[in-house]
Amino acid sequence: MYLKVKLNWNVVIPARNLDLNGLMLQKAILVRLLDTFAAKKATKDLGYLVAITTLDKIGEGKVREHSGDVLFPVEFTCLSFKVFRGEVIEGVVHKILKHGIFMRCGPIEYLYLSNKKMSDYQYHSLENPCFLNEQTGSRIVKDASVRCIVIGVKYMEAQKEFQAVVGLEGDYLVYKVVGILL
Amino acid sequence: MSAAGEEEENAADLKIGDEFLKAKCLMNCEVSLILERKYDQLQQIVFEKSLQYVKRFSRYKNPDAVRQVRELLSGYQLAEFELCVLGNLCPETVEEAIAMVPSIKSRGRVHDDEAIEKMLNDMSLIKKFE
């Protein structure tokens, strides 16, 4: 789920950039904010930081004693992406292994669907590996969209990445895969 | 967040933490409109993947249709989170809608099957005429 979030951060402008005034200073603050935002990538609470939509307010700068850099409090609105346990989401299959499937969902690269969580489907490795439901003929292949439910979410602090375990056990899941027979 | 807190999180019952219940959620189609506009601002990986994803999973493409869906769903006493799940997945039947968002039937709100059915019909009409 994408969220619209209002945040308050501090942006530090190095002393050497301070001969700028007015508009140029604003621009320097914005550029600095965009860089900081991109570098931050994700937080445990907000999920992935996707994009800044508006810069709402630049507060009064405070000079830092030792360096002479100036710290500006800024208020801005941004988009973030996070998945929640129990949420129904759609993922795109990018890897099929015997024991399960890896999917992408927005910035999340690894949604894992274990074969234990899709008991109606069996692994087949003909020319292309796939998971097949022999009763309905529904087939999960690479690049298919799969509707699934989030069972657990993990945040890895060091890499700043989220991973999630998903399942197909529930009504109307997979649903959209039915009919995609490549 | 403590381990116990995480244990309790369950979007099916709308237990997703206060900050997110209050936070504004966006449908994929809305995100798509925003990111397309910001395209030249940021070219980082998180942004790229998000754009790719929302382009693929936007049920509504036309900006007017996107606005209409938001307006329509806003009239149904839905939590932001529920509204966006419905707008993203576009369930076709009442049963499917309840399976996707079990909480719409709970929390003592008046969502009888007829009201849900009307909502889904109106959603598919917007899609048809976009």
From TrEMBL, chain A:
Keyword hit for Amino-acid biosynthesis: no
InterPro entries (UniProt xref): NA-bd_OB-fold (IPR012340), RNA_pol_Rpb7-like_N_sf (IPR036898), Rpb7-like (IPR045113), Rpb7-like_N (IPR005576)
Gene Ontology MF term list: single-stranded DNA binding; single-stranded RNA binding
Protein name: DNA-directed RNA polymerase subunit
Keywords: DNA-directed RNA polymerase, Nucleus, Transcription
Any Pfam family: SHS2_Rpb7-N
Function: DNA-dependent RNA polymerase which catalyzes the transcription of DNA into RNA using the four ribonucleoside triphosphates as substrates.
Residue span, RNA polymerase Rpb7-like N-terminal domain: 11-68
Species, as recorded: Cynara cardunculus var. scolymus
Similarity section: Belongs to the eukaryotic RPB7/RPC8 RNA polymerase subunit family.
Localization of this protein: Nucleus
GO CC, any one term: nucleus
Lineage, highest ranks first: Eukaryota, Viridiplantae, Streptophyta, Embryophyta, Tracheophyta
GO-annotated biological processes: DNA-templated transcription initiation
UniProtKB/TrEMBL annotation, chain B:
Designated name of the protein: HRDC-like protein
Lineage: Eukaryota, Viridiplantae, Streptophyta, Embryophyta, Tracheophyta
Key words of the record: Nucleus
SUPFAM superfamilies recorded: HRDC-like
Family: Belongs to the eukaryotic RPB4 RNA polymerase subunit family.
InterPro entries assigned: HRDC-like_sf, RNA_pol_Rpb4/RPC9_core, Rpb4-like, Rpb4/RPC9, Rpb4/RPC9_sf
Organism: Cynara cardunculus var. scolymus
Domain of life: Eukaryota
Main location (coarse class): nucleus
